[in-house]
Amino acid sequence: MEFVQQNPDITAYLAASEAVDHEHPVVRALAQRLAVAHPDAYAYAEAAFVHVRDVVPHSMDAGDLRVTWRASDVLEQRTGICYAKSVAYAALLRARGIPAALCYQRLADDDGSNPVIHGLVAVLLPGERVWARQDVRGNKPGVDARFSLGEERLAWTVRPEFNEVDYPVLYTEPHPAVLDALRAAPDRPSLWRTLPTEL
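== Transglutaminase family protein ==
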């Protein structure tokens, strides 16, 4: 898949923002702890991936009703849906000077109904020429996402016959439709009713 950078300037994928708040003490402290044990950029990116995937449960899997959208809140409260967990992973990468983009898939049920947008992160490690998508959603029976710079190991592979889509755009910030849904939802059941179905 050929990706399209929303911003041609790679430094845009290192910037801090209200959602990707990698200058927040919670994010910085975790980034520092991970970097001490994993000083190499590749090892750090994988360790940060595993941390967000495994230590921060997907709120639906955990039955957690809270909605988080800032990276610092996701890491501190240890909860979030795929969008929020992706923001947290992007923040941890950017905190160590590794370009990170937010990207998305459109997924659906096995009959093509109930479409929903799924959040991913693309990483560009030193010495690499292409972005590599990662899925920190969290594993469960039937889902086995892994950190990989080669063949993608995402939670789901899109099925075009069910109108599923891999969106090629690499965003510097969460897509407005995603961020608006997260920020407006008082709890996860409310969020489920307002999740974007397309970008």
